[in-house]
Amino acid sequence: RLVGLYSTCLRSIVHLAALARVTPCEETPTQCRRDNEGSAAALVAALRSANRTDVPVLFTSSREVYGGTDDGSAVTEETELAPISEYGRAKVAAERLLRGSLTRVGVVRLTNLYGRWGDWATRLVPSLVCRAMSGDPLVVVGGETTTLNLLRYVDAARALVKVLTMVEEGVAPDVLNVGSDEVWTVAQVASLVRTLTGSVSTVVEVARPAYVSSRYDVALTRQHEVLGGDVERRTVTEGIREFVEGWPYGERMCEERT
C-alpha cells in the first residue's frame, strides 16, 4: 500500500523485514518463509504494480546464507552459499528473488547483532545479561567450540546508511559482509557478561544443534575497502559494557517478558 501511495516520489527502499532468529525459524519454518521470502515477494509485487522496479533496494541478509565453516576458514562474499538452517535458506531465496526481479539491488550480509532489549529472550547478549543479573544459569550453545562475530545494532545501522547511498548512486558492491573484526567464542561472551555484571551465575553448556554452525568467521576485507575502518565504533567489550550499564531499562524489559 505504501509503495502505491508514494510510487512517484520513492527514492529508495531498505528491506529489513524478517524473522531474524535461527532457532525460531527451525520451530516455525512456515512463518520463517512467510516473513523472509514472503516479504521480499510482497515488495517485488508492489514495485511491479507501481511500475517502479527501478527503485534502489538495499536488502539486509545474513551471514547464515554461507552455512557452516567448521574448518576454521573465514567466509568472503564469494564463498558458495550453502545454508544449513531454515533461516539461511529463506534469506538465500529472498536474495535471489529480489535480484531476479528488480534492477538496482544491494545486499548486506550482517553478522550477529546486539544492543537492544526488545527481543532479549532470543538474542545471546541480552539473554545472558538478563540471566546474569537475576542469578540464573547462563545457558550457552557450544561453549568454547562455537565462535561468534558480534556487532552493535547502531554500528550496523550506520553501515547500512552508507551502503544505501552507494546503491542509490549505482556504486555499491553487489554483496557486502558487514561485521566486527573480533571473533569470540560463546563461552568467552558468557564469561565477559559475568565479569561486567559481577554475577555468580553458573555457565551451562548445551549441545550445538545441526542447524547451527560452529564457526561464524567472516572476512571483512571488502567492508574495509568500501566503508573504511570506522564501522565498529566500540570493541565488543566496550559495547557489552555499555549494554550492561543500561540495565535499569533492561530489567523492566526482562521482567515484562519473563
UniProtKB/TrEMBL annotation:
Alphabetically sorted, this entry's keywords are: Signal
Instruction: Check the record and name the Pfam families matching this protein.
Output: Epimerase
InterPro entries registered for this protein in UniProt: Epimerase_deHydtase (IPR001509), NAD(P)-bd_dom_sf (IPR036291)
SUPFAM superfamilies membership: NAD(P)-binding Rossmann-fold domains
Residues of the signal peptide:
1-25
Gene3D superfamilies cross-referenced by the UniProt entry: NAD(P)-binding Rossmann-like Domain
Q: Which CDD domains does the record associate with it?
A: SDR_e
Domain NAD-dependent epimerase/dehydratase: where?
Answer: 12-179
| UniProt similarity note | Belongs to the NAD(P)-dependent epimerase/dehydratase family.
Q: What is this protein called?
A: NAD-dependent epimerase/dehydratase domain-containing protein
Q: Which organism is it from?
A: Sexangularia sp. CB-2014
